[in-house]
Amino acid sequence: MIGKLNHVAIAVPDLKAAAALYSGALGATVSAPVDQPAHGVTVVFVTLPNTKIELLQPLGEASPIAAFLERNPAGGIHHVCYEVEDILAARDRLKESGARVLGDGEPKIGAHDKPVLFLHPKDFCGTLIELEQA
């Protein structure tokens, strides 16, 4: 059901410093920051030959990333995103198998302007999973 790895997301306390680290020390191409108010984050994408790294910083005090950074002040891997051909069919199949879809269960538009859903980490070996419509 899942397709290719779309990105690995890393929550960071300082997006500007993290972007500079990836572009300077690692020589990567880093996008401009984009606010994602619906998700409570500001993101940049680090482009790699085979996938992307998404660097996330909280956008506002109600951001779900803020709680993550309280527990992990230096930052860390927040989630892994896989592509799916049909996000609604994937959601329905996962729910039938007992997986929990976070939020109201309806896809939201993500940072790539495509529908996304998140799956509960307790159902996937402690890893928060994002599914993105391919």
Q: What amount of the residues lies in strands? A: 35-45%
Overall geometric form:
globular
Q: Residue ranges: pLDDT <50 for 5 or more in a row?
A: none
Mean pLDDT: 96
Q: Give the C-alpha Rg.
A: 15 Å
Structural class: alpha+beta
Helix share of residues? 10-25%
* Measured distance between first and last alpha carbons: 12 Å
Largest sheet: 9 strands, mixed
Helix count equals 3
> What is the number of strand segments?
9
Task: Describe the structure concisely.
Helix content is 21%, strand content 37%. The protein has three helices and nine strands; from the N terminus they run E-H-E-E-E-E-H-E-H-E-E-E.
Written overview of the protein:
- The structure is a single chain.
- It contains three helices and nine strands, in the order βαββββαβαβββ.
- Helices cover 21% and strands 37% of the residues.
- Strands 1, 2, 3, 4, 5, 6, 7, 8 and 9 form a nine-stranded mixed β-sheet that branches.
- It starts with a strand and ends with a strand.
- The protein has 134 residues and is α+β, with helices and mostly antiparallel strands.
What structural keywords apply?
nine-stranded mixed beta sheet, globular, 9 strands, 3 helices, alpha+beta, 134 residues, 21% helix
